[in-house]
Specification:
This protein has 304 residues and is mainly alpha-helical. The chain has 17 helices and no strands. The chain has a domain at 1-64 and 268-283. It has helices at 6-33, 38-41, 54-64, 67-98, 104-113, 123-131, 135-144, 146-154, 168-172, 179-189, 194-202, 207-218, 220-235, 239-244, 253-256, 270-290, 292-300.
């Protein structure tokens, strides 16, 4: 055990304070830059004292980037992805822990291995599936000869197509599954006493009722912690929304920020770009602040 002394405590506090300043410095620069006019923000060095043009810059960024529509899409995208990940991972972990069937551990490890395949690695096949979600089923019909048989008998060629490009379904659905959430829920469910399941079974409770009435209330901190992590993760997604949504109607705020960055020969209005950045990064910060207590409790609960 490390002995606590005033000198050691002071050194630790100083290191933490330096780390805090390093982390907060970019946020401070964004906030300060968003309050200046274009002349002041391009001054070298830029003043680190706030200016008086914050609301003017916020309005300009809001109108130019159409952030009203894009922030709505971001909330819909991030909220639905996070909620879907929480629901799907909780049900997957429930099936793995409480149902005894051959290969359940193999199934769990296959799910867990997908942690080594982030979205950026599987972006090409994921995009191909989103372009036509029924393409695998069409391939099965072609390989088995069903397509040829139907065409021979009826003269109609079966062609299954379901495009998900430029749609909320294509934007959200490929990102809903998560191995991280399944692992988190599995570890929690393993700590739940077996007596609870036995008592619920004796009371006539089925699997669905046990899951809804017993497990979900117990895992509320886990749900909020996972929702917070996945909401921030989905909000900051850039590559997938950029590929899947070529229609501006389905764009999200993170990809729309590029419209505020000054071009090579354009007006260097970094104050407007920083104001747009402030608007876009505020929602996930607010979500983390509001759910911080439950988030910490779900991650460091002594029950795990």
């Amino acid at each position: 055990m490390v002995e606590r002394t005033p000198v050691f405590n002071a050194i630790c506090q100083a290191i933490l304070l330096i780390g805090l300043l390093i982390v907060l410095l970019p946020f401070v620069i964004v906030i300060v830059a968003s309050t200046h006019d274009i002349r002041t923000v391009n001054t070298v060095p830029m003043p680190l004292t706030p200016g008086g043009d914050l609301f003017v810059n916020l309005h300009e960024a809001w109108v130019r980037a159409d952030l009203g529509r894009k922030l709505f899409n971001s909330f819909l995208f991030a909220g639905t992805v996070a909620a879907g990940k929480v629901l799907l991972s909780s049900m997957a972990a429930f099936g793995i822990v409480y149902f005894r069937f051959p290969g359940r551990m193999l199934l769990f490890w296959l799910i867990f291995i997908t942690l080594m395949l982030p979205l950026e690695v599987r972006i090409v096949p994921t995009y191909a599936v989103a372009a036509n979600a029924l393409a695998p089923f069409q391939a099965i019909l072609d390989i088995t000869g069903v397509t040829w048989l139907i065409q021979t008998l009826s003269g109609i060629r079966v062609s299954l197509e379901w495009g998900l490009l430029n749609s909320y379904t294509g934007l959200i659905l490929p990102l809903v599954s998560t191995a991280t959430g399944t692992f988190l829920y599995r570890q929690f469910y393993l700590t739940v006493p077996d007596e609870l399941a036995e008592a619920a079974k004796m009371d006539g409770s089925g699997p669905v009722r046990f899951f809804v009435d017993v497990l979900l209330p117990l895992s509320k901190p886990n749900m909020i912690a996972l929702f917070t992590i996945m909401f921030v993760w989905a909000w900051n997604q850039y590559l997938w929304p950029l590929l899947i949504t070529t229609d501006p109607k389905f764009g999200i705020a993170a990809t729309q920020l590029k419209t505020l960055i000054p071009s090579e020969f354009g007006l260097p209005d970094w104050n407007v770009a920083m104001a747009g950045t402030l608007l876009i990064m505020s929602p996930p910060l607010i979500v983390v602040i509001l759910l911080q207590r439950w988030f910490v409790r779900g991650l460091i609960s002594t029950e795990k």
